Amino acid sequence: MPELPEVETIRKTLIGLVAGKKIIDVHIYWPKIIQHPEVEEFSFLIKDQTIHDIERRGKFLIFLLDDFSLVSHLRMEGKYGLYPNDEPIDKHTHVIFQLENDEQLRYRDVRKFGTMHLFPKGQEWNNLPLKKLGPEPFSEQFTVQYLLEKFKKTNRNVKSALLDQTIVAGLGNIYVDEVLFRSQVHPEKIAKELSKKEVKKIHEEIIATLKEAVKKGGSTIRTYINSQGEIGMFQLDLYVYGRTGEYCKVCATPLKRLVVGGRGTHICPKCQKK
């Protein structure tokens, strides 16, 4: 699933492709992707709307139109791409926004898990799915004290707590594993039992790791590419994720894979002692 760095990279590439272009029609081939409003109303409202900007909130893209905000979640394998009208449409293309100048913004999704919500501009913040999101990792609200307070209120392990989008928005499996390794914290440790020093280190590494990943275009794991077909390069700098059986870059201990909170989890058993 694309996480904050990948979604931010997609946002940056997409904005250069579609900003200032008008949606003159929409074709929806998999109605379940449209979560709000009903498909017929969605199709009617979005016509003749110009795409002015694209923002990001956690793992969500927000297309700012004339009168509406289109909130899009890519889930596991959703992708956007700009194509000429005469480009053949493959079976995984489920929504097509017909633009001016014989271009189409196409949404492809092999697993069909992605979602789209259309709200009057400004109302997206008062409704799900954005309403309950925690602060952005780069925001002023995301402080060490904030994280300490959130951890003290949960009995969950630290990995599960960090994956909770109501605590901090944008982190997923890849970057939680990387952050915990860089913090030398075992993912099964109970969040409320962490020391202030450990929480401070986790807070620092969340910001540092995500900034580094954004700079390098995200991590290309399995099928992630940005909106121009380019791969991210941060996967070359991953310490633990996807490296089961390989040697730790810090201490040369073989890396292990665990299941924590139902999620595949990658650790160094020496650097991250429980």
Write the layout of secondary structure elements.
Layout: H1 4-18, E1 22-28, E2 34-36, H2 39-46, E3 49-50, E4 53-57, E5 60-64, E6 68-73, E7 78-84, E8 93-99, E9 103-109, E10 115-120, H3 144-152, H4 158-163, H5 173-183, H6 196-215, E11 256-260, E12 263-267
Parallel strand pairs: 2-10
Antiparallel strand pairs: 1-3, 1-8, 4-5, 5-6, 6-10, 7-9, 8-9, 11-12
- Give the strand tally: 12
User: What is the H/E string?
Assistant: HEEHEEEEEEEEHHHHEE
- The share of residues in helices is 25-40%
CATH topology of the largest domain: Helicase, Ruva Protein, domain 3
What's the overall average pLDDT, rounded? 93
Number of helices: 6
Distance between the termini: 27 Å
Q: Please describe the biggest sheet, giving its number of strands, its sense, and whether it closes into a barrel.
A: 5 strands, antiparallel
- Strands of the widest sheet, in order across it, are 3-1-8-9-7
Can you tell me the CATH architecture of the largest domain? Answer: Orthogonal Bundle
Assign an overall shape.
elongated
The tally of structural domains comes to 2
Coarse structural class: alpha+beta
Radius of gyration: 20 Å
Low-confidence stretches: 221-226, 229-233
Task: Give keywords.
single chain, 274 residues, alpha+beta, N-terminal domain of MutM-like DNA repair proteins, Helicase, Ruva Protein, domain 3, 2 domains, five-stranded antiparallel β-sheet, five-stranded mixed β-sheet, 6 helices, elongated
